[in-house]
């Protein structure tokens, strides 16, 4: 939850069979890893316990091993001939490229998550800034009223209360 009262929300994740895989109540953040099967999954962010206040949420779906059937990776091998003379096999190069790709995608995911945390923290800081400004103005108003009352009281102490006859 990036913004909203309490920074909490309910989360449900249902499998294609209708079984509850994940159920979190009033959590501000969470990371869930699920082994999937074929079918449609349903996830729900529920804010019914706090219908008065709206929430801003961030979520990201990361699907690992999508489209890596092995057939596509093996297609390139039939076009390559005479690779036995190379010191480094093409399989090693492919392994290195896949490793770099996986690490790069993990870096992108972490940066996205850090941006979401930064946005949440910025919203909290702006809310605190507004609160501090409000109470500072209230404090300033009270100080002005108190100083005016003190000036009035001091003047009244030094007034001549006797009636003067001329």
TrEMBL record:
SUPFAM superfamilies, alphabetized: Supernatant protein factor (SPF), C-terminal domain
Residue ranges crossing the lipid bilayer per the database entry: 134-154
A matching Pfam family: EMP24_GP25L
Membrane topology: Single-pass type I membrane protein
Superkingdom per UniProt: Eukaryota
Location in the cell: Endoplasmic reticulum membrane; Endoplasmic reticulum-Golgi intermediate compartment membrane; Golgi apparatus, cis-Golgi network membrane; Membrane
Major subcellular site: endoplasmic reticulum
GO cellular component: endoplasmic reticulum membrane; endoplasmic reticulum-Golgi intermediate compartment membrane; Golgi apparatus
The keyword Transit peptide is assigned to this record: no
Ranges for domain GOLD: 1-63
Family as reported in the entry's similarity comment: Belongs to the EMP24/GP25L family.
Official protein name in the record: Transmembrane emp24 domain-containing protein 5
Organism: Calypte anna
